[in-house]
Amino acid sequence: MSEVSAPVPASSDKDRVIIFDTTLRDGEQCPGASMTFEEKLEVAELLDAMGVDVIEAGFPVASQGDFESVAEIARRAKNATIAGLSRAALNDIDRCAEAVKHARRGRIHTFLSTSPVHMKYKLQKEPHQVLEMIAASVARARGHVDDVEWSAEDGTRTEMDFLCRCVETAIAAGATTINIPDTVGYTTPSEYEALFRTVRERVPNSDKAIFSVHCHNDLGMGVANSLAGLAGGARQIECTVNGIGERAGNAALEEVVMAIDTRSDVLPYRTGINTRMLTRASKLVSAVTSFPVQYNKAIVGRNAFAHESGIHQDGMLKHTQTYEIMTPESVGVSKTSLVMGKHSGRHAFKEKLKELGYELGENALNDAFTRFKDLADRKKVVYDEDIEALVDQEIAAANDRIKLVSLSVIAGTRGPQRATMKLMVDGEIRTEEAEGNGPVDATFNAIKALVPHAAKLDLYQVHAVTEGTDAQAEVSVRLEENGKVVTARAANPDTLVASAQAYITALNKLQMKRQSLNPQSAAV
């Protein structure tokens, strides 16, 4: 048995809501949202610093990579409880225990389907067999750790009498948290609140566990249902940054947290989240998954604190509360509306960087300012997002062994398209000309000729950082080589330049991976 303390029952602190983040597990199950080992560690570190109570770091039995990422996150976590997900199979539970054993506070989260449709078609089990599996799996988990969560998969479509028997069985076997998820986003707020009230009233040992909500957003009610669960007595909310997740996603962490923070008059609860880090978390998760946040996304969307209408602007100038129910600073957005352009000076640029959370050394600042001036000459308005993309790229390139010197491309209706590229590789200038089926293909072929490699291009994605025909293009590239996967991004008003920079950044990351595995392998 580990030395982890059991969670304090909700009754001892009835207003405290536990924030359980499953971005790294349920969020990553969103098609196309897979993260690399390093990216998972980066996200977990930020969630831990932000005050997330429980980080569900992955599904350890799913793959060796998932096991290793959960184990490493468990070793590094400073504050949060680290949970691993497990099916009801005993070997799954043992594998999960192995992954979380190094955490200061480790949790095993095991689940089993309880709805008629799941039991009949998915499990092909009778109700009495399901109850036996619940008892055995929870007891096995409790033999490893003191903090065990049990989930009734498809709980909102489960018959109430049977759901109550399942919950009672799980608590009797040692579960300290009971999660009744809306797995398919089917329920409504009034139904979900009533479900928790009924279960807590009818299950005799319900006071021995904390109840949890886990809501999917198939009908757009994930956040509303989560808050309704609190009214029904739940005190843990399972959610993801930006609401990413399977199908239509999960309840968004930033939305449930700010709803509680802003409407304390009707939601008399509190969380331990540092809300000023919400925007930073949103941007990080968006970047590592290559899933852009919609402009009008609540709390963290680009337009969440933007006002273009003349009527709105007039009201905001007279009093900010006319059209804003929370301050931008409260979620980590600068209140400054300073517009940066080609006439801005170095001091103004430095102050803008501070507002955006960047502290650069003198040389890095000079380089970033030079690139900013080049960008401002090509754009009428330089937005905060432009500056962030520019500086992020500058930081990433600081120690790169491969650097883009110049690129010129011949494109149009008459093919083949041709790219002429000059790279600096370990201080040596190399030049190459290559053809391709389109300008991007020609550009990438030139890179391959200059830096021979066997990496496979798994993803190439382009979207605009800001609006307008002069907007910066942000390009995401994912390369795979011998099982090693890296993702890189770059932004530039020229899409082809951004494409080349993203590809080169990915190659630099692969080189760093090779060196970490084999320090003697230093050649590019």
In short:
The protein is of the alpha/beta class and 524 residues long. The protein has helices spanning 37-50, 64-76, 90-100, 116-123, 127-142, 160-173, 189-202, 222-231, 253-262, 278-289, 310-318, 346-355, 362-378, 384-397, 439-450, 495-517; strands spanning 18-21, 54-58, 81-86, 106-113, 148-153, 177-179, 210-214, 236-239, 402-410, 417-425, 428-436, 456-464, 473-481, 484-492.
Q: How would you characterize this protein structure?
A:
It is a single chain. By secondary structure, this protein is of the alpha/beta class. It folds into 4 domains: 16-289, Aldolase class I (TIM Barrel), CATH 3.20.20.70; 305-334, no CATH class; 336-398; 399-517, Double Stranded RNA Binding Domain. 40% of the residues lie in helices and 18% in strands. The chain is built from 16 helices and 14 strands. Strands 1-2-3-4-5-6-7-8 form an 8-stranded parallel beta barrel, surrounded by 8 helices. It has a 3-stranded antiparallel β-sheet with strand order 9-10-11.
